[in-house]
Amino acid sequence: MTTLTTPATWRPEAFTAAVGDAVLAPSIHNSQPWRFRHTGDGLEVLLDERRRLAVCDPDGRMARMSCGAAAYNLRLGLAVAAGLPARFQLGSGSTVLRLWPAPPRPATPMERRLHWQIARRHTNRGPFADRPVDAVAPARLAEAARSEGGWLDFVLGDQALVVVAELIGCADARLRADRAYTAELHAWTTGANHSVEGIGPYAAGAAPHPAEILTRRDFGGLGHEATRDLSCRPAVAVLGGLGDGPDEAVRVGMALQCVLLTAADLGLATAMYSQAVEVPETRERLRQAVGRIHEPQIVLRFGYAPTTCYTNRRPIADVIEA
Ligand SMILES: Cc1cc2nc3c(=O)[nH]c(=O)nc-3n(C[C@H](O)[C@H](O)[C@H](O)COP(=O)(O)O)c2cc1C
Fold first, then answer.
1. Atom of ligand 1 nearest to the CA of 62
2. Is any atom of ligand 1 closer than 6 Å to the C-beta of 301?
3. Of 72, 93, 121, which residue is a domain's last?
4. pLDDT tens digits, residue range 144-154?
5. Is the C-beta atom of 257 inside 6 A of ligand 1?
6. How far apart are the CA of 58 and the centre of ligand 1, in A?
7. Do the beta carbons of residue 19 and residue 320 sit within 8 Å?
8. What angle do CA 267, 230, 207 make, to 5 degrees?
9. Which DSSP letter does residue 242 get?
10. Is there a contact between 260 and 24 (Cβ–Cβ < 8 Å)?
11. Gap between the Cα atoms of 176 and 281, Å rounded
12. CB of 28 sitting under 6 A from ligand 1
């Protein structure tokens, strides 16, 4: 006699809870360009084209990275909270990732720790303390990127830091000279802390100061005093993947989120700078500066700083596709 068993899949409540984890991921300008679908036997992460930033992200690379970051959280939520991990395949077009149940297994201690950090991680645009990052941190962060198919190269030495800082500054100036760019940035700079998307005044940080080591994107924050950065030796790294196409951006997004959650686990604050990769010329010069074959996708800064402000998210119901 044969026994018929129903193949394991995620119950609707587990799916909704994992989507709750997914939406806490970072996204360019907090645009949240994602949707999620339960297909019966699996799940899909979809790119919401309507939320792609037409000016600063014409090819959708950063929207895909954002979806990749959300997909990483989703995978952690499924493995830890739902107890049924996922195997996945990169999708094509607007379906950025497909997930199916993998054989059930207990979540690893590291998965549990990273899952716990999902709600604690946030972008920190405040000043970092004058304290070098722990010696073990760079290797752990680089390993986190590698574990998701990415690379994370730390910028070593003052000279290399000056090059990266100049590229970010140059790209930022180039972007700001474009009226369409500033209009788009303004549209996502909400001016209200209660908005469910975009960047409100608390999260914006103070106005960028010319003396800052790395040029922050200007989200309309007020007052310079709070930006006085105390750290004189910042830990700066460049993240990229093993290809340059749209699918690779999704993978880099998963690597990005793994790095950010690992940083949170190490007690590190993080800030992101994507201006240099948004301008083709500076992106190429940054690639040459780090000596990689494939294009860099974002610059990250790590350090110690008090918690700043969390940005809001749209309701879960808005991102679940029927
Ligand atoms: C692909 C990508 C690019 C980003 N670029 C920048 C940037 O240039 N400057 C910045 O301050 N934040 C940047 N961010 C961070 C987002 O603004 C941030 O994730 C979003 O506002 C949500 O806030 P949270 O990270 O605190 O959850 C970027 C995030 C992603 C995913």
1. 1
2. no
3. 121
4. 999 999 999 99
5. no
6. 17
7. yes
8. 95
9. S
10. no
11. 16
12. yes
Closest-CA residue, ligand 1 atom 18, reads 26
**End-to-end Cα distance, the chain:** 39
State the residue range of the domain holding 54. Answer: 12-121
Q: Is the dihedral of CA 67, 68, 72, 74 positive or negative?
A: positive
The minimum-distance atom of ligand 1 relative to the CA of 260 is 25
Q: What is the pTM of this model?
A: 0.96
Pocket test for ligand 1, best of 21, 27, 47, 282 (most atoms within 8 A of CB): 27
Tell me: do 80 and 167 sit in the same domain.
Answer: no
Name the domain count of the chain.
Answer: 2
Task: Tell the residue nearest (CA) to atom 10 of ligand 1.
Answer: 272
Query: What's 260's domain CATH number?
Result: 3.40.109.10
Instruction: Tell me, yes or no, whether 1 lies in a domain.
Output: no
pLDDT in tens, 113-141: 999 999 999 999 988 998 999 999 999 99
Task: Compute CA distances 35 → 26, 102, 218, 227, 283, whole Å.
Answer: 14, 22, 28, 35, 29
127 in a structural domain: no
In a domain, 21, yes or no: yes
Indicate whether 182 belongs to any domain: yes
